[in-house]
Amino acid sequence: MVEIRPARATDGEALVSVHVAAVRELGAAAYESAQVDAWAANKSPDGYPVDVDTAHFVVATRNGAVVGFGHLEFGVDEVQAVYVHPDYARTGVGRALLDHLEKTAQAAGLERLTLLASKNAVGFYERHGWRGLEWVDHESTGAVVLECLRMEKPVGQSFSIE
Predict the structure, then answer these.
(1) Quick one: which of 81, 53, 156 has its CA closest to 111?
(2) How far apart are CA 145 and CA 24, in angstroms?
(3) 3-state secondary structure of 147
(4) Contact partners, residue 64, CB within 8 Å, separation at least 6
(5) Looking at the DSSP assignment, which residues form a beta bridge with residue 91?
(6) Distance CA 36, CA 38 (A)
(7) Which residue has the higher pLDDT, 68 or 161?
(8) pLDDT digits over 70-113, tens only?
(9) What residue ranges do the domains of the chain occupy?
(10) Residue 96: C-alpha distances to residues 2, 13, 34, 59, 61 (Å)
């Protein structure tokens, strides 16, 4: 069973571990090794907005261990991140995180959300009702560019193919 809870400052090391593992294993299917290295570089336990008023930052846990995280940024109405440790990919963790972020946006009165999907994550978002808008170049750490798909979804739209 997946539990979603607010992230805490003490989750920092677990967030880095999940983030880097997801990028290295899942991102490698869609990007070159130099791009993956840049994407995974310079992650810091204090680099996640767990105590910022404009962010809703949550973790997914199984048996008390952090196995994923999600980040919704208010003001720009954007899902900034949904990352799942590769050991838990395709087990409902990402879906639980995304559903939670979408419900939080709906409760806040938002009408539409956007996000930038990495090439390896586009199918996941499409299965959950997100629509691609345009391919964009996203500058990662070290000025390395990752091609990503800008996507959108009306808040409150329930749609999932799984």
Answers:
(1) 156
(2) 16
(3) strand
(4) none
(5) none
(6) 5
(7) 68
(8) 999 999 999 999 999 999 999 999 999 999 999 999 999 999 99
(9) 3-154
(10) 7, 22, 31, 10, 11
Instruction: For residue range 3-30, list pLDDT tens digits in order.
Output: 999 999 999 999 999 999 999 999 999 9
**3-class SS letters over 1-38:** CCEEEECCHHHHHHHHHHHHHHHHHHHHHCCCHHHHHH
CB–CB of 146/120 below 8 Å?
Answer: no
Cα→Cα distances 146→87, 93, 130, Å: 24, 24, 20
Which residue type occupies 2?
Answer: V
Q: Tens of pLDDT along 41-79?
A: 999 999 999 999 999 999 999 999 999 999 999 999 999
Q: What is the pLDDT of residue 142?
A: 66
Helix residue ranges per DSSP H, 6-161: 12-26, 33-40, 93-107, 122-127
CATH 3.40.630.30 fits 3-154, yes or no: yes
- pTM value is 0.93
Q: What is the mean pLDDT of the chain?
A: 93
